[in-house]
Amino acid sequence: MIHPASRRLIVALDFETLDEAFAFAEKLVGLVGLFKIGKQLFTAAGPEAVRKIASLGTGIFLDLKYHDIPNTVNGALRAAASHPGIKLVNIHTLGGFEMMQQAARTIAAIPNPPKLLGVTILTSMDRKQMSGVGISGTPSTRVMALAKLAKKAGLDGLVASAHEVKALRRAMGKDFILALGGIRPDTKVAGGKNASKRKQDDQSRIATPGGAIRAGATYIIVGRPINAAPDPVAAARAILDEVSEAEAEMKASGK
């Protein structure tokens, strides 16, 4: 049975093998809007990972964060869009305006194209880490500047942190896609605090699922709280219930 809030949930398939990822994904069909295939699984299994996961009937967010010269990124995007089930792809906004603009034009020329998102400042980076690589200011100020550049270049949305989502929603408008990483359920939610402790938590800017939706997220991206939970299905359902509660509150308040 499809959960009414499933369209909001992107689950990361961060597994070492395709067999593990597929067995896990099968359990969550109907609870997930998109499965995210990132660098780990794509490097291990290549395009076959996309084909096999897409066979489940759930869309794919191909999270490879392209960051290169425009011509190379354009070729990669055309290749990505040729795979079945691809609904979202992404590029690094730090690649610059020309790269982003050409990428947006490349995607627009593809029949039934995926949406193109930009990655701004990784959720693992705080102000000190940014300064260490020569990026000035706070994460929030850099995210906003890069977001405005991405929208001007023609991108459909951003992958960002929940700490910036309110400001981004106000600045970018209601149709701009905001996919929020760094999601950690409340400790009362299955798969929350205990699941995130199973591996070192490297997310510096985090929020609860309900908080992210109330703040303006289009999607929430969840990895460890589901895929490291003792019962991933229960963890996913608890997160979706929290999302549904947030949506109901927003509807009641007229937001």
What does this structure look like?
By secondary structure, this protein is an alpha/beta fold. The chain has one domain (6-252): TIM Barrel. 45% of the residues lie in helices and 16% in strands. The chain contains twelve helices and eight strands. An eight-stranded parallel beta barrel has the order 1-2-3-4-5-6-7-8, surrounded by seven helices. Strand 1, helix 1 (18-28) and strand 2 form a beta-alpha-beta unit. Helix 4 (70-81) runs parallel beside helix 5 and helix 10 (209-215) runs parallel beside helix 12 (232-252). The radius of gyration is 17 Å and the shape is globular. The model is unreliable at 189-204 (pLDDT under 50).
